Amino acid sequence: MKKLFPGYVLKSESDIVRILNEGLIVFDAKVLLNLYRYSESTTNALFEIIEKFSERVYLPHQAAFDYNRNRIDVILQQYKVYEHLQKNLNDILVEIQSDNKQPFLSPLLKDKIEASFEEIQAEVVKSKKRFERFIYDDPIFERIDQIFTSRISNSYDDERMKKIYQEGKKRYEKQIPPGFEQKSEIEEVKYADLVFWKQIMDISKYHNKDILLVTDDYKPDWIWMIEGNRTIGPRAELVEELHRYSKRDFHIYSSKNFMEYGSSVFSLSVTADVLNEIQEINENLNSKLIQDYEGLRNKLLRKKNIITELKHIDKEITSIKNEIGEIDQKSNVIKLNTEEGTSELSDTKYKLIELIKNLN
Q1: Pair 109, 152 in one domain
Q2: Which listed residue, 96, 158, 258, 350, has the most CB atoms within 10 A of its CB?
Q3: Neighbouring residues of 256: CB distance < 8 A, sequence distance ≥ 6
Q4: CB within 8 A of 129, min separation 6: which ones?
Q5: Residue 210 placed within a domain
Q6: Do 63 and 210 fall into the same domain?
Q7: How many structural domains is the chain composed of?
Q8: What is the span of the domain harbouring residue 347?
């Protein structure tokens, strides 16, 4: 049974340890992009662990592409976060400094609050400028480039990509993971997860190694979930597909799990604050992702309902046009009959006039 259905057999602790200690560690784009979302200390802590595994880390080409494509957008998002915070702080400070309305505070307390606000604002401005510089001088990018520069898998040519897109269409119809949750109609976006997965399998087969995927994108087309959104591990279909392809094993870790493991292996000190920060940011991002997905889903449903309603209206219009056509035909018949009747009356009138003349 275990050999027939390896994807449905929960991994033992020794299985996971084997994959962690001997396999290759691959990352998705979100893990790298989140390095911009963490505090500087947390970013450095995660970098330190990734660098410790530098001989076993790998980056599928699709992940590298997605990282580069989205990097500037994520930097600008972080800049806007601090810009928004700065505006809110200024608004609050204006309220506090007012002498003409509530809250009325003592001059001494106002001075203390203003001093604290100045310190906070200075930190916010510093962070804003930091992300502004990142657009042109990005130390996170440089560090990622140094780690993965010779550890990125090959890209696929157009012919291979076309075949994957064709395969993806059939897979998604049957909800075969990964990627079937993606709703975009743009092929390179819609099938990006499948391309990423194919490259993971190629890395495993080429190096004859088990794979540990570090991802913070916990979607149901990647993760085996049970009641209450409790995660068991990767989808069974993924474990079995990779096993058929490369005869190797596959497992998934979050960034938090990876940091806990890495810190224990290399005896590094990772504080609870760092782990909590990673977990909280990813929970917020995943929650927003779910909301965005639900919003898109509802939008598509509304669009579908509108299309259905438009089709119904179109049928009504066609029906009305047909009725108008029938009325026009009947009107023509009536008109023709009326014209014929008028002609007959005229003839009869003429004959009567002639008859009266003859009688006279």
Answers
A1: yes
A2: 258
A3: 275, 278, 279, 282
A4: none
A5: yes
A6: yes
A7: 2
A8: 271-360
Q: Which of 242, 266, 290 is the last residue of a domain?
A: 266
Q: How far is CA 105 from CA 52, 96, 113, 116, in A?
A: 53, 8, 10, 15
Would you place residue 294 in the very low, low, confident or very high pLDDT band (cuts 50, 70, 90)?
very low
287 and 353 co-located in one domain = yes
CB atoms within 10 A of CB 204: 24
Residue range 338-358: average pLDDT?
54
At residue 211, the pLDDT reads 97
- Residues 232 and 360 grouped into a single domain: no
- What is the arithmetic mean of pLDDT over 332-341? 52
Q: Do both 313 and 213 map to the same domain?
A: no
- Looking at residue 318, its pLDDT comes to 75
Residues 6+ apart with CB under 8 A from 155: 61, 65
Find the helix packing angle between 192-207 and 236-246, rounded to 10°. 40
Whole-model pTM: value is: 0.75
Helix runs in 221-271, H state only: 236-246, 255-265
**Distance from chain centroid for Cα 109:** 47
Nearest residue to 64 via CA among 25, 26, 29? 29
Report yes or no on 249 lying in a domain: yes
The span from the CA of 237 to the CA of 232, in Å, is 13
> Is the C-alpha dihedral spanning 94, 99, 100, 104 positive or negative?
positive
Can you tell me the distance from the alpha carbon of 237 to that of 290, in angstroms, rounded to the nearest whole number? 23
How would DSSP label each residue in 58-118? EB-HHHHHHHHHHHHHHHHHHHHHHHHHHHHHHHHHHHHH-SSSS----HHHHHHHHHHHH
Indicate the pLDDT class of residue 300, thresholds 50, 70 and 90.
Answer: very low
- The Cα–Cα gap between 63 and 196 comes to 7
